[in-house]
Amino acid sequence: MKLAFFGDVVGRSGRDGLTEFLPGLKRRLQLDFVVVNAENAAAGFGITEATANELFDAGADCLTLGNHSWDQKEALTYIVREPRLIRPLNYPPLSHAPGRGAQLFDTPSGRRVLVVNLLGRVYMDPLDDPFAAVDRELESAPLGAVADAIIVDMHAEVSSEKMAMGHWCDGRASLVVGTHTHVPTADAQILPGGTAYQTDAGACADYDSVIGNQKDEPLRRFTTKISGGRYKPAEGPATVCGVFVETDDRTGLARRIEPIRVGGRLAPHVPVLDRIEA
Fold first, then answer.
1. Tens digits of per-residue pLDDT, 181-235?
2. Does residue 68 carry a catalytic annotation?
3. Which residue from 103, 154, 209, 212 has the highest number of Cβ atoms inside 10 Å of its Cβ?
4. Catalytic pick from 68, 155, 180, 182?
């Protein structure tokens, strides 16, 4: 299978970038399934039905979330109605969090893709153990038996926790990819057990910014320690950042992983889709 995952969509710029580039990427790469992290899609904070529909219309098959899942209150009810929207799996049972943290999808070709969304606990508002939570999902829908491909979005602050999750799932998932820090890392690789991995997919955002936000307010807070208002998404052309993965049809493990960076400021400075194979 040919899969793509795109990092955090930040505001209108990120949505417009995906609308512009994703249809062409789907044709060029012959993608079977596309996952997009959309927790910052609505004005930089959370998701709404309208913003989600823009991303679905652009070609996303599934949207994952993160620590901003409920910033837009309508998401609490919308997620119950929309099975393609996935929030972090590892909410405590007593939280009664709406929606689902993992979902098994059927593709038009008849193959099945499991998507799992996890939230890290280091320097984040800690939820339950993401390692135990992902174990339960991988055991209930094993790769190569129930699922033809498995994508794990590890939404976390620190690289070490994301890397640990990659190795924890190695051999049991097609792709483990980090989100949240909005900066694409240069470590796309296939782990020893056959799982594709990248510490952070980056963001679909204007990179003339501070992690997708207009520069003035972050600079004010860093230099004065005084807030002057809310962060606002930067509004220039987006660089669309993500990863492309090709899996073995028999095992579901990765044969190839390559970074995707198109449009905006970053793309001219890096090779696009340099070939990395097992």
1. 999 999 999 999 999 999 999 999 999 999 999 999 999 999 999 999 999 999 9
2. yes
3. 154
4. 68
Predicted confidence (pLDDT) per residue in 72-112, tens digit: 999 999 999 999 999 999 999 989 999 999 999 999 999 99
Cα–Cα distance for residue pair 123/199, rounded to 1 Å: 16
Domain ranges of the chain: 2-269
C-alpha 219 chain-centroid distance: 27
Q: Which CATH number fits domain 2-269: 3.40.50.1970, 3.20.20.140, 3.60.21.10, 1.10.260.40?
A: 3.60.21.10
139-161 CB burial, b ≥16 within 10 A, e <16: eebebbeebbbbbbbbbbbbeeb
| Helices then strands, each counted (H, E), the chain | 6, 14
